[in-house]
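To: structure desk
From: M.T.
Subject: fold request, one chain
Message: Could you run this one when you get a chance? Sequence is below, nothing fancy, just the single chain.
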Amino acid sequence: MDGNSPVVFTQTSHFAASFPIMEEIRRQGKLCDITLKVGDHSFSAHRIVLAAAVPYFHAMFTTDMVECHQKDITMKGIDAIALEALINFVYSGRIAIDHLNVQSLMVGASFLQLTEVRDACADFLSKRLHPQNVLGIKSFADALLSFGLVRAADDFIHEHFSDVSKGDEFLSLEPNALIELIKRDDLRVSSEEQVFEAVMSWVKKDPETRSSSLPSLLVHVRLPLLSPRYLADHVAKEDLIRRSHECRDLVDEARDYHLMPERRSLVKEARTHPRCGSPFIDHIFAVGGLTKSGDSLSTVESYDPTVGRWSMSVPMRMLRSRVGVGVMRGQLYAFGGYNGSVRLSTVEAFNPVESRWKRVPSMHCKRSAVGAASLDDRLYVCGGYDGIASLNSVECYKLEDVEEGVKRPTDNTAVSARVGGNSGRRSGRRRREGEVDEVLRLWQADDGGLEEDEGEEEDGVWEAVALMSKHRSAGGVVAFQGHIYALGGHDGLSIFDSVERYDPLRGQWKSVSPMSSRRCRLGAAALNGRVYACGGYGGSTFLSSVEAYDPRSDRWSAVKPMNVTRSRVALVSGGGCLWAVGGYDGAANLSTMETYDPRANEWTFAASMCAHEGGVGVGILPMS
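Reply: Done. Structure tokens follow.
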């Protein structure tokens, strides 16, 4: 070693030893050059220490603000005791949090931008949530933009709704806040009776002023899920309901749902869909997919979670693998796919009451590896592969009795680029008898033929909406909080980590934070206020990893991975859990299924499919 080379000496205890000395100097009132005043209280400190440790003061003292050169500074919007504790924290790195000071400390820490202290206060509160305080804490956290505490409060409210609804905070909610709560899918209730009784308790707390809100509240109580006996003995006999024409109409709709099953599809899906936190009374349907040898299937089977077993259901009319699946108005829709020879534009729907598949107007484009989701009585299909290229086009399907409501803008470029000369043939209108043979001939030429064509076609129409920013084949698509999310996928050259979401009111796609991993052939579903991306293929490896998106923070976070690597996995949420069905592990197609419980943060295996070897599309239907 060169004898003239410098040697760097580092004293690791330097900063830990220095700050206690600075704290003692401050307590002696020496060398202090700033005084912070709150009311009658004054606190001396060192300007350089505050600027170094507190972002609020760093901005104040290092810019041209008036306070930069002032000796005395009056602080507003912060409690004196909290300010003293936070100044002490700056010098010592320690702060005592208890139930008496936690709120004032959290407000002060947020004001001074001491995020670590704010988060420590939020963690303190999240561990002390109670049915009697959780709504107040959530409101407090909302005001401070503490997203983690808001989510913890939401989870607690959903988990303990019955107890929360008996508290004074619940009975003091504003009508709009109550609506936002009872409309949530995530409420964990033993039956819809608990939601109905909570609403009636709220109204009866002040019937003179609150009875006018009952119709708008009752819309979000899922009356068709109540038993006929409870509807007759309790709901229909409520005086406040009997006095309201709108409320009586909702009760009549619920009665008809039980008395006339053939009309169930006319009831809005939001009022008949069981809450995710309720006991799981729905069945998972696995549609189409592949055999061990890779052939496409028309096979359908359903999983009954009450007995934990798969059983055969009515097969589709066509062979379909890489098929998109969506649920609307109690019916299961199968979109496009691949029949072993060509990509398909045809669509069919399964009615569980009639136990049959029927024809649905075809999409404008052929699409396999397509994502689909249902939102506001409309079905959206996004991207896919038409046999030549990956697609960025999106189509929306609605039944002809759907009211328009707010006009939904469309992207004319999308219409002209993708509809072309097929729009007349696939418009979805009823065809005259003389046209039927020609239509079927064209379908058979383009889409490989329908196995059966008898029966009427559903009355619905397809319309093109705005193009996605990416050409996405084998992406994930999910409806969530009024938007359609498109995740990952590929364009034939690149696999994406990007995510974009469609706002149907504005007719626009907007990018959100990308996933932490590139994924195509992934599963996507929404659960408990988050969007989950599961498995897939990353370009060099098949994935078992899982991540979740929180729209409040616009961030993705890692979730415990699945037990098995799964590409082409189908993901669905139900019963408060995620269900990952089938897939491909890099060597073989999979018939296995596993389920994720977010409360335990565990994936566990459930029963394997009995008739599929992966590549399925999945959807959930209520079964009577």
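Reply (cont.): The first strand starts at residue 34 and ends at 38. Let me know if you need anything else for the meeting.
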